[in-house]
Amino acid sequence: MNKTITGSEAMWLSLIAEGVDTVFGYPGGQIIPVYDTLCDFEDRIRHILVRHEQGAIHAAQGYARSTGEPGVVIVTSGPGATNVITGVVDAMTDSTPLVVITGQVPSAALGTDAFQEADVTGLTGPITKWNYQIRRPEEIAWAISRAFYIARTGRPGPVVLDFTKDAQNGKTEFSYEKCKFIRSYIPNPKPSDQAIDKAIALIDNAKKPLVVFGQGVTISGAGKELQAFLEKADIPAGATMLGLSALPSDFPLYQGMIGMHGNVAPNIKTNECDVLIAVGMRFSDRVTGTVSTYAKQAKIIHIDIDNAELGKIITPEVAICGDAKKVLSILTEKIQKNSHEAWVKSFDHCREVERKKVIDMEISGGEGPIRMGEAVAMVADVSGDKAVIVTDVGQNQLSAARYSRFTKGRSFITSGGLGTMGFGLPAAIGAKIATPKKQVCLFVGDGGIQMTIQELGTIMQEHVGVKIVLLNNNWLGNVRQWQEMFFDRRYSQTRMLNPDYKLIAEAYGIRYRAVEDKKDLRKAVTEMLSDDEPFLLDVHVLEESNIMPMIPPGKGIDQIMLNEKEWYQK
Amino acid sequence: MEEIKNYTVIIYTENQIGLLAQISNIFTRRSMSIWSLSAGPSSIDGIHNITITTDATERRIREAVRQIEKRVDVIKAFFYVEDQLVYRELAMYKVPTGKLLDSGELESLLSKYNARIVEMNKTFTVIQKTGYTDETQALHDELKNIGVLQFVRSGRVAISRTMQEPVFKFLQKREREKEKINKS
């Protein structure tokens, strides 16, 4: 019945069957047949031609993070494949669903050091959720359906399919069936009743409970369930950096971000609470500070869909392996309605101290150059807290995390676990392509933008209306901060001479404006956000400024510096 | 400090190329040395068995086993201390035949260690012994006086004290779940 088609056609038909309409890629010798066939699918597939394969994968990450759907990347063998590796690790660490298809030399040439041959399945084994080398065209439908099923279910992650050239050219019959079951893989484990009962008893009897949540809430779409849980039990909550935007910023029980540069209140209260409920997060060292002093006084309930995270860093009193949405629904139904008024109120003091000592100065502080926080807060203000915020890595990221405000989920896209400089610009491109009706605003430093600046070409060619806010301080700011605070101000290789960004923007036909003066900031941001065109806003910020508060490395979560000299006093 | 013990990890997997490398990676990434490794079929068609021995604390081994089970093509992994298993290793020793015969200890060694000769010629003799690590090591130490030309010891093969393959019930459960999904 099924007519015989080429492997390349089978690949595109499989992608279309999975609902793919956008892919990010770059052609090359061992993937030419796939690109040739693309000519026949251009009515159904939008291919975004990037300028470097790293751009393709970060763009696909931005696409995936803003929608929850797997981002698809197509690159050639050898260097094409090795250029995506940073993004694959990043996606693995930050649970981002990706399907990456790499060309490969013909199967007869495998292992001969053929031109542009790299051992892609060997290289990507430890950094993918699953990988597979397709050597026969009959395997394509099976491998792609499995790839999508694995990438998007359970704790999402990247899948790499290494596609030999003979499998692209070979003929096969084709029929597609979506993968629904793999016997060795349980994406949605049933939470144990016993663990649920123990958790309920702890929550019902808690006097000072605290919730800390991560991206698991976003991934499982559990924002509403989390709100219902917090409201019924009257529990304050802090977000990890990747958990940002899972709760609206103005949600009354929301206490801000936890971790190294997080808010004072949820950090301090982590070491005062009696029951700590961790939802969809993995106790990263940037969240815990010194583990040996982390929440020692508390009984910890850890909810995560990834069994390998339970007990990895912190040994919880109760471990619940399951989907956040499902677990939170069950808990909310079974717990008692409760009130912890005095406990919730006790967060106010910490918040006030932080406001006075840190925030006021950062976002509305008097004279002098523009501060990063000010630029971030201005974007939040002018966009009505509605923009999707994408960041690079470093001070731009930390400022964006601290001073952005959110009304909707999937509005904060950043490289958290791996901390990949160069992530921001391509990720913003992917996010904008995925959500064209939203304003997508990138905060990026002058260091990070130059790591993937070639992607301005992609913006030009595809006309992607990304708003780029360059927080330009002529330093590699975050490392400079560490050098100032912990390395005796020996500024080794952190001063950076910048190109003329005006000329660069012009070269790519991207509108540009520079701001140096505080009084021009609102107007400039308003101009930037007034339409849907690409825009580069070059904000000349205070050159030597530090992200505060800070839990210095090696310190506990309640040992917080408010500025370079002053510690938070409990 | 938690006590470091010798653990045997038994892993049941689908037959997937590259999986062995990914599993050994999980140990090396955590600086855990693999003392022995053997791989082969299990009693269930299509399901492979990888047996690895390593020294670790219980917390570390539990963590590693969870990471192993996280690999999509791993069906299930178990860890055991020695007395929970029936296990053997196979050792072979090549010794110079002349010296062996001159020593006059051949028969007593073979019976003491329950070892046997698998090949003998004018120049060398290959002795084979199965048993626990300390037993094969002890014979090696005694043969040293005669002179050991070559010595090789296999990875551990182990069988659990459960009635069936420990993965058996899990697979039955998954089969039922598959039927449910296919019906819906």
Describe the structure.
The complex is a heterodimer of chains A (570) and B (184). Chain A is an alpha/beta fold and 570 residues long. In chain A, the strands form four sheets. A six-stranded parallel β-sheet of chain A has the order 3-2-4-5-7-6. In chain A, strands 11-10-9-12-13-14 form a six-stranded parallel β-sheet, with helices on both faces. In chain A, strand 2, helix 2 (32-38) and strand 3 form a beta-alpha-beta unit. By secondary structure, chain B is an alpha+beta fold. In chain B, the strands form two sheets. In chain B, strands 5, 6, 7, 8 and 9 form a five-stranded antiparallel β-sheet that branches. Chain B has a four-stranded antiparallel β-sheet with strand order 2-3-1-4, with helices on one face. The longest helix of chain B is centred in the C-terminal third of the chain and has 16 residues, at 168-183. Chain B is elongated and about 75 Å long. The relative contact order of chain B is 0.19. The chains are: A alpha/beta (570), B alpha+beta (184). Chain A binds chain B through residues 121-122, 125-126, 129-131, 133, 150, 180-185, 306-308, 310-312, and chain B through 13-14, 17-18, 21-22, 25-26, 29, 59, 62-63, 66-67, 69-70, 72-75, 171, 174-175, 177-178, 181-182.
Key features of this structure:
heterodimer; A: 570 residues; alpha/beta; Rossmann fold; 3 domains; six-stranded parallel β-sheet; 24 helices; globular; B: 184 residues; alpha+beta; Alpha-Beta Plaits; 2 domains; five-stranded antiparallel β-sheet; four-stranded antiparallel β-sheet; 9 strands; elongated
